[in-house]
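This section describes the prediction task in plain terms. A model, or a person checking by hand, is given the sequence of a single protein chain and must write out its three-dimensional structure as a string of C-alpha cells. No templates, partner chains or ligands are provided. The sample shown here is typical of the held-out split.
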Amino acid sequence: MNWIHQAACRGHDPELWFSTRPSKTKTALAVCRTCPVIGECREWADGHSRINGYPLQGIWGGRPHVRRRRTRP
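The expected answer:
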C-alpha cells in the first residue's frame, strides 16, 4: 500500500469517508476526484472485503464500498 502516502485524503478527517450524511459524502467524493492514486485505492478495495477483521465499508477509490451480499443460485 505504498500508494496511500500519495492519497489526496491524507490530512482530511477520516469520518468524511464513513459518514451517512450526504454533505460529508459529497465532500469526500470531491476529494477523491482530485486524487492521483484513485485507481490504486479502488483496486485495493476491490481486492479486499475485510480490513483488520471487519467488513470493508466507506468510500474507497471514489465510490462507496458496501458489504456485498451473496445471492442464492
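For orientation: Helices lie at 22-33, 38-47.
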